[in-house]
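User: Before I run my own analysis I want an independent prediction to cross-check against. Here's the chain; please return only the structure tokens and, at the end, one sentence I can use as a sanity check.
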Amino acid sequence: MRISLLYIQQNKTRNANDFEDHFLKKLKNNMDINISNIPIKKKFNSKSQQVAYEADLLLEKIGKNNFICFDKIGRKMSSEEFSKDLYKSNEKIFLVIGGAFGLSEEIKKNALKIISFSDMEFSHEVFRVMLLEQIYRAYCIFNNHPYHQN
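Assistant: Structure tokens:
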């Protein structure tokens, strides 16, 4: 299992890094996972210009690989369903989190799947921690580890 988590925007608080490190340490013992921040150092005249620019950067990183993106318009699923989806392929999979203004239609159209965690919106830092926890939970479900108590 090889997972690459791509996101736009940098962490603003150390606490988010601590939580990310906690789950990454657990995951790296069991799978090939990495997190890549795609920094945006440019100013834009409009939200649509920024979203299009971010899409180009994301697609450049993803290349021809499969990817799942996260957006509130996506399908809600249980942790068990997420685990099955994540583990049904041994290929490298990219998990993509968009910037402050969301993901472009091009990204959504080309995604293997769009997943929603909630109708609510979360800060990028909180969402990344939630996603890492769900990746760890997916690993535990797949391997019958007691972390996931169902």
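Sanity check: The chain has one domain: 2-142.
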